[in-house]
Design a protein that fits this description.
257 residues; binds adenosine-5'-triphosphate; four-stranded antiparallel β-sheet; Rossmann fold
Length: 257
């Protein structure tokens, strides 16, 4: 579904190769500045690679027009602009504009918008201006806009960053069910234990390179946690749930730049 072919975006990303298949939640992990946002933007077709390419459904995505991209890929940026002069519903409706550029929405568009508002718990807030929402509510509105788009690929940059624990788990569960329906979901995520629980596969970036790629239980070794994340930590199985967890003991001294 997405093929990343020796992708370079100098000087930030080097030699990234991966094939991402539908039906999976893929977690992009790595320390601050590792290149997660840049890689997601390249996958969304928003950057022109210096070398290599990202193919989405067989096409080099950066070369396709915005409307083609928007029907296949929904991209959630890490940060929304401060001033968005719309109410929640109007903002979510924009997710349908790639289907109807004139803005005249039909019954099917309205159904997508209603489902997205419902999924994100925003029905009561649909007429409220975005400027009046809390950070987490704005984040939910931005995710709802992506869902309304109805694209088979979701690329979400830190979708749970400002959410309370209920919505963190709720959204990760929903992303799992979208993947079970055959979509490809790629998320940048800093919460390593949640990445372990909810991702089928994790790509770990370090300094713009792929440091590890595989199922979380193979990626999160004590050695990788030390070398890449600069923490002393050990994976263990939760005796109650059997889920993989991390026991953190200390931050290691940073490597001088
Ligand atoms: N437009 C830009 N021009 C130059 N350097 C940039 C640009 N955008 C990002 N960078 C640099 O590229 C590196 C990777 O940034 P990126 O935002 O992709 O990292 P990240 O892994 O998403 O980080 P975080 O976890 O802090 O959000 C950083 O060192 C950043 O300073």
């Amino acid at each position: 579904m997405i093929r990343i072919d020796r992708l370079e975006y100098r000087p930030i990303l080097s030699e990234i190769c991966a094939e991402l298949d539908p039906g999976q939640v893929v977690g992009l992990v790595g320390p601050n500045g590792a290149g997660k946002t840049t890689l997601l933007r390249a996958m969304a077709g928003l950057l022109r690679p210096t070398q290599g390419a990202v193919h989405v459904l067989g096409e080099p995505i950066h070369a396709r027009e915005p409307r083609w991209r928007a029907r296949r890929v929904a991209y959630l940026p890490q940060f929304l602009p401060e001033e968005i002069p719309f109410a929640v519903r109007e903002f979510v409706e924009m997710g349908r504009y790639s289907h109807h550029p004139s803005g005249a929405l039909d019954a099917s568009d309205r159904r997508h918008v209603n489902e997205a508002l419902d999924a994100m718990g925003l029905v009561q807030l649909q007429d409220v201006p975005l400027a009046h929402l809390s950070g987490g509510e704005r984040q939910r509105a931005a995710i709802a806009r992506c869902l309304a788009q109805g694209a088979p690929i979701l690329l979400l940059d830190e979708p749970i960053a400002s959410l309370d624990i209920h919505y963190q788990l709720d959204i990760l569960q929903r992303l799992r069910s979208f993947a079970a329906d055959g979509r490809l979901v790629v998320i940048a995520i800093h919460h390593l234990e949640l990445a372990m629980s909810y991702c089928d596969r994790t790509l770990c970036l370090d300094g713009g390179r792929l440091a590890a790629d595989g199922p979380p239980e193979r990626v999160f070794t004590p050695e990788l946690l030390q070398r890449v994340f600069r923490v002393d930590a050990r994976p263990f199985r939760d005796p109650h749930t059997g889920a993989l967890r991390l026991s953190f003991s200390a931050a290691l001294p940073s490597i001088p730049e």
